[in-house]
Amino acid sequence: MTAAYVVMGVSGCGKSKIGQGLAKAISARFFDGDDLHPAENIAKMSRGEPLNDDDRGPWLDKVGEQLAMSSEPTVIACSALKRIYRERIRDKAGKPVTFLYLEGTHEVLSERMKHRDGHFMPAALLDSQLATLEPPGESEDTVKASIDQTPDQVVAEMLEGIRRKQQ
Question: pTM for the full model?
């Protein structure tokens, strides 16, 4: 079965950067989940309005469908904030999906969001994302890493976690 990974966490945690680095390290395809959002979701977030479960549903389906269509190892960056979102992605993927959870403090996340250019998600939505976040539990197929280190160190920690799971 083809490997499927979702780099997850709240906005500003580095999902895209870490996802790209991980995909390169394991010779996988990378997709940014932001590119799968419907235009309505991007417009809503750009206005500073948080998405609700109904808004996220079609987007989560697209993430899972992208994983299902992939015949090669695939990494997708997607917030996957709630357990039900992760279950929905797994259901649509139709295969095992490992979630790679990027953990960070409010202070680190806020600082990162203030300094990024050209992203539709305003820093003002960080609190709503943190309020929505249900960190993955022990029963979920997850690897965790702290974002309070360099991107290369985060990727290395993720790779080590993946290796441990495969043993």
Answer: 0.89
